[in-house]
Amino acid sequence: MNTINPDQAGMRINMQEGFSLIEIMVALALGAIILLGVTEVFTANSQTRMEIERTGRQIESGAYALGLMDNDITNAGYWGEAGEQPAGGTLPAVCPGMNADLTAAATELVDTMGYPIQGEDALLSSCVAPKAGTDFLAVRRAASCSLGSTDCDTANSNFYLQVNACFEPSDSSLPLPGVLKMSTVIADLDYTQRDCTTLAPAYRMLSRVYFVNDDDELVRAELSRDSGASAYVETSMVDGVETLRLEYGLDTTGDGQVDLHTDSPSGTQCANVVMVRLHMVVRNLEPTGGYSDTRTYSVGGASYTVPDAYHNNTRQVYARTVRIRNVDGRRDAQ
User: Model-level pTM?
Assistant: First the structure.
């Protein structure tokens, strides 16, 4: 019979077996591989999330730019109680209302009412500075709210449009219904409604020019006299707009329908514009690693080559067709 020495029994009970050095090294190697894989997944997910955010901002910028111009173009030619205005034989200045003589400036603005939409080659503009190879668009209309109405701007020194509705057949010295008045002096806006007593609504005259500047910003230059003098105040609306090209639909027969498409309406053809097609290239403001765009795009019938400095930025081409409701609508009704 075998007997166990008490000392040996105690030794066996107290001994503990551990990992060998090789096992520890293998465990560390496996842990490092797993950690590397997790890090790569996390990094890839972060890059994907950042790219999605960039793309989302770029899409938002493009949609906002189109929506901004869409709203103004749709309402071009709105003159309150006045109807469509006749076009003069000479194309008006791109930025009217700058004459130091306010009477002459008001006459300039009235003359532009026959041209609610005016677009030309950028080089022909002297009041704004568009980026070379891009178009600009002048939009004219009255504000959608009348002076003194809720949520409308308070009276100031800007130009206001008023239409007479009073008819007094017994007094030939009084203006006939439909006669316009343009003035910066609120007290001069004394035309009345059909009751010949209540003042007729007065609307601020809006004259705006949209263009892309050399910093790739969509800019709106708007006629303002808030500083006491007439000036086209420029406001950057959207960043990352690389080019703006325009096409026009002309109604040559007076029925409100598009009869001719052109990217360069000549002279008085601008009076017959009933549709504008907007073309824009909008890029992400931040470059994307590993991405390179060296393509040449066709934008509104013109070529656009991506600048070397922005090869690593993603971009998208946008297009939208906008009907000028206050022009084609009146012609449709005739």
Answer: 0.84
Which stretch of DSSP H or E encloses residue 303?
strand 302-305
Q: Which helix (H) or strand (E) holds 241?
A: strand 241-250
- Degrees to nearest 5, angle at CA 72 with 67 and 77: 150
| pLDDT range class, residue 42, cuts 50, 70, 90 | low
Give the whole-angstrom CA distance, residue 93 versus residue 300: 25
- Is residue 273 within 8 A of residue 321, CB to CB? The reply is no
Residues 314 and 297 sit within 8 Å (Cβ to Cβ): no
The residue assigned the tokens 């019938």 is 301
Tokens of 122: 């950028």
* 277-310 per-position pLDDT tens digit: 999 999 998 888 888 999 999 999 899 999 999 9
Q: Which two tokens stand for residue 19?
A: 């990992």
Q: By C-alpha distance, which of 115, 127, 121 is closest to 263? A: 121
Rounded Cα gap, residues 261 and 251, in angstroms: 9
290: Cβ–Cβ under 8 A, 6 or more apart, which residues? none
pLDDT of residue 136: 93
SS3 at position 235: strand
Asked if 137 and 210 touch (Cβ cutoff 8 Å), the reply is yes
Which pLDDT value is given to residue 272? 93
